Description:
Elements: E1 3-9, E2 19-25, E3 28-29, E4 43-44, E5 47-52, H1 57-64, E6 70-79, E7 85-106, E8 109-124, E9 127-130
Antiparallel strand pairs: 1-2, 1-6, 2-5, 3-4, 5-8, 6-7, 7-8, 8-9
GO cellular component, one term: type VI protein secretion system complex
Organism: Mariniphaga anaerophila
Protein name: Type VI secretion system needle protein Hcp
Amino acid sequence: xxLTARLHIDQHPRYDKxxxxxxxxxxxxxxxxxxxxxxxxxxxxxxxxxITGINDTELVNWMLNRWDRKxxxxxxxxxxxxxxPQESKSLKFEDAFLVHYGESFTDQSDMIINLSISCRxxxxxxxxxxxxxxxxxxx
Length: 139
């Protein structure tokens, strides 16, 4: 099944339509001991995205404001039997910081923007993961 994806950020001018996602990478992990037994709490990695190069002041401001936290989701769409796109999966995030913003361009391709998002809460496949942050400790 062919998938497409859209990034939706609350209060972003493009929230309804979303921002086209070209690539996505995310994982959960936990450490294991020498016998393979899980030995730590589950950790969420960064949400890494590549999006089409757009002139987007909102994303740049999110990156430049150290304490700006956002809520949003990444929606994945597949084509159903009738040939109509429908949402097949989503990853929702809350209290998210944009911790990496990078632009790339060559004369052989369009501009792309690479983003990395770190968040306190994630919902994936109706399963919630949440961590505690001590915001005062990092001030």
